[in-house]
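Problem: given the chain below (250 residues), write out its structure.
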Amino acid sequence: MARIASSLAAAAVLLQAASAQTVHRVDVGDGGLTYEPAELTAAVGDSVEFHFLGGFHSVARSSFDSPCTPINGSDTIFSGPITGPATDVFTVSIENEDPIWYYCATQRHCQMGMVGVINAPSSGNTLANYRSAAADVSVNEAPSSTGGGTFGPAATGSSSATGSAGAESTSAAPTSSGSGSASASGTAASASATPTGNAGANLRGEMGMMGGIGAAAAALVAGVMLHPPKPPLRRLLLPLHIRQMNSPPT
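Solution.
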């Protein structure tokens, strides 16, 4: 029992430590030569995700004194050039509180102001000064190899490509219910349309019948006018002398 209690306590500590870690998000190339946010503070044990949303960019580490020039070796951080929107994100784990100055090593993006910092000092070196110094650098260099981070699914939310799918999936429920509502309304409309259609058919039938009766009556009148009735048969059967007496004098 004591061993079980000890294991549970250790698991609780690990769980608490894991829940205390924060995952920060930086959007790369969202509408221009930008990191958003370009400056953030992260604690030891936290991680920073770089979401490549558009363009052709990278994340490369440099020192404050040498912007647009990579740090190679064990301290290198380089995502490699990425075309956005990308499904996976580049995640950097924060192992100490040292500042991480970084830039885009693509073309002249660094000189054009695409720079950022994690854990900038509270005084002295600032992001504005780093950006200003980068503008005067003649060559934008990339690290010799990638490293310092990992590529994989996002933990803070989807990157642009996955995010679109997530958004569609989220909106799928309202769309589905909307379709259901439309279907129900359509069924009701269809149901109500049925008696209306029957009533229309009945009305047309009655009108047709009345039209037929009217046509027959008109034909009968026309026939009478074209062919007036002959004298009664009784008059034809009268004796000749009586008919002559009744005839007008000539």
